[in-house]
Amino acid sequence: MLDALLRQLVLLGDRISVWPVRRQRTANAALLVVRLDAIGDFVLWLDAARHLRSIFPARRITLVANAAWAPLAAALPYWDAVWSVEVRRFADDPIYRWRLLRKVAREGFGIALEPTFSRKLGFGDSVVLASHADQRIGSTGDTSNLQEADRARGRMVYPTAACGP
C-alpha cells in the first residue's frame, strides 16, 4: 500500500514538474529515444538502433541514456545528442528528476520512443510522458514486472492502440 502511494506521489510530481513548460515544435520536430536499462540490453538493441537515421532522416535524434554506458553511446553515429542520466539518482533525488524532466519538456520533441522490452513506469515512461510528444511509442514487450494499476497508467503514456502495455 505504501509503495503504491509513493509511486502515485512520484508520478504526480512528474506531471507537476513539466506542466507550465512551453515548448517550440517544428514540422520535423526532434525524436527522443529513451534507454535507461543496463548495458547488456543496450548492446543487444544497437542493431535496431542503427536504423533510426533511415527511419527518421529529417529529425534530430536525442538519446536519453543510462550514465553507465552513455559514453559508449556518444561515440556512435546513430544520434545527434546523448543525455546521460544517473538512473539511481533519477529514482532517489527529486530535484535531479525534476531538472531532467523539465529539460525534456522544454526540448519540444515530436516523437518519443521507449523501446525497452520490460519498461518501468517511473523511469523511461516518465521521461516519455514529460516530452509531451504528439507520438509516444513504447515496446509492448513484457509487462509482467508491472502491477495492473501501473499497466493502466502505461496505457495513458502510450495512448495509441498499437503501443504500450
What does this structure look like?
With 165 residues, the protein is of the alpha/beta class. The protein has a single domain (28-157), classed as 3-Layer(aba) Sandwich (Rossmann fold). Helices cover 47% and strands 15% of the residues. It has 8 helices and 5 strands; from the N terminus they run αβααβαβααβαβα. The protein has a 5-stranded parallel β-sheet. α4 links the parallel β2 and β3 (81-85). The two termini are 22 Å apart. Residues 161-165 have low confidence and may be disordered.
Structural class label: alpha/beta
CATH topology: Rossmann fold
CATH class assignment:
Alpha Beta
Compressed to H and E, one letter per element, the order equals: HEHHEHEHHEHEH
Average pLDDT figure: 80
Strand content: 5-15%
List how many beta strands DSSP finds.
Answer: 5
Total of domains: 1
